[in-house]
Amino acid sequence: DAGVTQSPTHLIKTRGQQVTLRCSPISGHKSVSWYQQVLGQGPQFIFQYYEKEERGRGNFPDRFSARQFPNYSSELNVNALLLGDSALYLCASSWGVSGSGGEQYFGPGTRLTVT
Amino acid sequence: KNEVEQSPQNLTAQEGEFITINCSYSVGISALHWLQQHPGGGIVSLFMLSSGKKKHGRLIATINIQEKHSSLHITASHPRDSAVYICAVNSGGSNYKLTFGKGTLLTVNP
Fold first, then answer.
1. Chain A positions with Cβ closer than 8 Å to B
2. With a cut of 50, which residues of chain B have pLDDT below it?
3. Which residues of A touch B41 (CB under 8 A)?
């Protein structure tokens, strides 16, 4: 069975542009979470979606948005890119949101570079 | 002060040594995770704990809820164990927000 997949693997954008990152969860998982990891730091929580509803949002500006589709895949959008948005963007899926259902499985990440 | 603190930040060991990485947290949690991240980015979940102890191969994770502390042990360390080990906690509730420590960079020399 396939793990969590993310696309693209790498991406280079210029300041002011918009970017869309994609995530497909493990089959049967209904929750997707997005994290940003700046070089040398631990990941920071951006969003969690469960059953197509936003369940949590981290301390990120409104330039960051996300959605979850009926097949539980998810997109993360970032508008008006800044140099500081350069990071590894990680997606994680789980079948639930708490207890044993909350064990998270991470994708390989999308490396975004903003120039 | 970060909600999740790990120590040490960097650890160098010789092959075969017993390794301990520590994690302390300041909030009430419903679960604690130990994760492994290799150069290039991919994160692998090693353990999810809410109490007690778990063992998988040469890896052992323990948690003391009262003391808000967890440890990850690696027995008979090997160069392939070299990676960043990250502690993350879930404070529960209806959203599954993980709060991460900054990670411990482990280097095991042959």
1. 31, 33, 35, 37, 41-45, 48, 50, 55-56, 58, 88, 90, 92, 94, 97-100, 102-109, 111
2. none
3. 37, 88, 90, 108-109, 111
Long-range Cβ contacts of A43-51 (<8 Å, 24+ apart): A43/A90, A43/B43, A43/B86, A43/B88, A43/B98, A43/B100, A44/B100, A45/B97, A45/B98, A45/B99, A46/A76, A47/A76, A48/A97, A48/B95, A48/B96, A48/B97, A49/A74, A50/A96, A50/A97, A50/B95, A50/B96
What is the pLDDT confidence band of residue A95, given thresholds at 50, 70 and 90? confident
Nearest-angstrom CA–CA distance, B2 and A68: 30
pLDDT at A11 over 90: yes
Question: Average pLDDT over chain A, rounded to whole?
Answer: 92
A101 pLDDT more than 70: no
